């Protein structure tokens, strides 16, 4: 298991912040285990004192005292459970947002990263750290207390209990050794299987249209079969060990009764002590047996903790640098290089250019030239491998994301809307400002289209809502990009799904943005969209081939016959 020294600082700090809860749980565990001694004490006193004396008053007093102890024990266990629930809530509050943020960054820079696996891993670890697993761990040391009491009853009984406790612990370690490898293989196969399932559901349209379902099920079934086979192997091994453990525990209780009976006959102990010893032995063995039953969860929780720790370590919190309160929109790109993680392929190589506030730049070039990658670097989605992107002199990568987003708009090539209303999507889930939302939608040319939706701006979109067309999603996303009066906007193929009316609305929006002195970068394969730009940058194979005024660049890039269609001379 991980030690706190090996954990990332954020997880260690979160666990440290919950220390008062864990300390209280440990204290309650101590009290409940001590109070459990009331049962064997009551049993021995009834057998040895009440039955021999026939005193009903003694029986009533013993019973009342026993019931008070059991009521107190039950109350403490209830309070302990409530504390564990609160500690789980606090742990989730301290870590879930950070894990979610790291997952977003991970999915951007690592293709194929599991979308929600880290959150599932956090929940797995939290379930053990704030549930029955923690209680079993805290109860385990108290087995020594009960074995010690058995030694006080008689050394022979204590020695018998100690031998069987050692046997159970040995079987538990053996069970861990047998189950670790197949459980790890099962978990890995499960992650791959669920990831393939998510990807298949996301591409259901293509699967249905191209008849891929049978082949995909066969491919999905490979990891599914590996997961089930490894799980079955671990289950087979575990069930055999659990059977041996159950046999050892039952044998121990029977032998303690046998040893106790021998000692009673030998007048070394009383009959009450014999029955009390049997109860104590069962309590001493219980945490050990619980740990064996929870061993699969322990291994899964350890792997989950390792996954979350690795994620947080590789995606540290960005240290926000001092940045302008409201930038004017001056863009400076200096010797920008980008090499995707775990590859040696240079996607962008020493790209440099400068834009003044209010200028519009068109990014052009063949497919796979690096245009979309440059767009992502401009808005701080990716960290540059070297070089820097500055907005009004401040590094966009180190800029606080929430603050940066107030001044920047971005429309990606693949448009996705979030589950929620149209107004929530446009407002970027900020508190609703109806006037500002309508202004952004009007500027994007989406206002009339939105009003025609079933519930207008309150129409639910996403998986559980109204399915918008590609052009409608693009118009709503454009409204989201211009929301809040940003000073710098990057648009990646904003007209790829638009009809002629939508494209005209886009051009009107771009002219309006220029009139408002907003700096705009637009990627488009439709030359008409470049008519409103001031400058063009031509990329090829990640290298900046040319950069300059639109008229001069069009003279180099566009044949004279096609130049008139985009306003070229």
List the helices and strands and how they pair.
Blueprint: H1 9-17, H2 19-35, H3 38-53, H4 56-109, H5 117-129, H6 132-139, H7 143-153, H8 155-202, H9 204-210, H10 213-265, H11 271-293, H12 295-314, E1 331-338, E2 348-355, E3 360-364, H13 371-378, E4 386-391, E5 394-395, H14 401-405, E6 408-411, E7 420-421, H15 422-426, H16 434-443, H17 447-451, E8 460-461, H18 470-482, E9 488-492, H19 500-515, E10 519-523, E11 535-540, E12 543-549, H20 550-557, H21 560-563
Parallel strand pairs: 3-10, 3-11, 6-9, 9-10
Antiparallel strand pairs: 1-2, 1-4, 4-5, 7-8, 11-12
Low-confidence segments: 561-569
How much strand? 5-15%
Compute the CA-based radius of gyration.
Answer: 34 Å
* Count of all domains: 2
Biggest sheet layout: 6 strands, mixed
The helix count comes to: 21
Relevant terms:
12 strands; 21 helices; Rossmann fold; four-stranded antiparallel β-sheet; 2 domains; six-stranded mixed β-sheet; single chain; ABC transporter transmembrane region fold
Describe this structure in words.
The longest helix is centred in the N-terminal third of the chain and has 54 residues, at 56-109. Strand 9, helix 19 and strand 10 form a beta-alpha-beta unit. The protein has 2 domains: 7-314, ABC transporter type 1, transmembrane domain (ABC transporter transmembrane region fold, Up-down Bundle), CATH 1.20.1560; 331-566, P-loop containing nucleotide triphosphate hydrolases (Rossmann fold). With 569 residues, the protein is α/β, with parallel strands linked by helices. The strands form 3 sheets. Strands 6-9-10-3-11-12 form a 6-stranded mixed beta sheet, with helices on both faces. Strands 2-1-4-5 form a 4-stranded antiparallel beta sheet, covered by helices on one side. Helix content is 62%, strand content 11%. Mean pLDDT is 84; it is low at 561-569.
